[in-house]
Amino acid sequence: MLRINGVQIGQKDEGNGKWMLGLILGVFLIGTGTVAALAGNEILAEVDTVMQSDSRSMSQTMTLFSASGQSRTRELQVFSDSTGGEDQMLVRFIAPADVRGTGLLMDGDDMYLYMPALGRVRRIAGHAKQGSFMGSDFSYVDMEQFGTRGFAVDYQAIFVETQSVGDREAYQLQLEPTSDSEYSKLAMWVDSERYLPLQIHYFDKQGEHFKTLTTSEFALFDDRWTATNMLMENVQSGTKTEIIVEQVDFNAAFEASIFTTRNLERGQ
Description:
The chain is α+β, with helices and mostly antiparallel strands.
């Protein structure tokens, strides 16, 4: 009998052919985890490639739903750029009046928030990034991952299986954080053709299902598939946040000054 890492893979007295078959199967099984990790990381890297762009401007509406069903809708613009060597993103609220001028700036690893009521720019510390973004069910980290950062830099991905999600074929991945995170793990279903997430389950520090992100509509902008309806549901509190993408320009050009705290403070 031959064992590798405690796994029995063959009986030597059963004949050389059977012994070799057992050896091959055993090595394959031992390496399955590594293969799954390689495949998972490759899929996740492709997700980031598809979701990210050198430059982009977007018009969106964000609707917040309370557990009782009451809703508030906000209009915002998102600008992102990575041509200067650093990932940069500016989120600006333009309506309604009570949030108009509020803005979020992401510049590399730094994050800043401006609220007209405070009249000053506030830097968001590392631990605070895990908090709710403007009362929504998206955290600052969530916004950063979908906007500029992507997932591969923060997670190790394991390929689980291929499944159907609605009428789409999807790769199921399990994502384990590689550094401090507000989540203990993520389960992600990736469209096998477009390489965009169809659904993501977020699990809290205790390993309990915390939030579910579902993308239900897609459209082509500048020949690129883009998720145009994203719903984040907090399954523990019953609140929901829906983001609808109205327009995207992947060929946008920006002045460098747009991604500065000075411009953020202008509130326009």
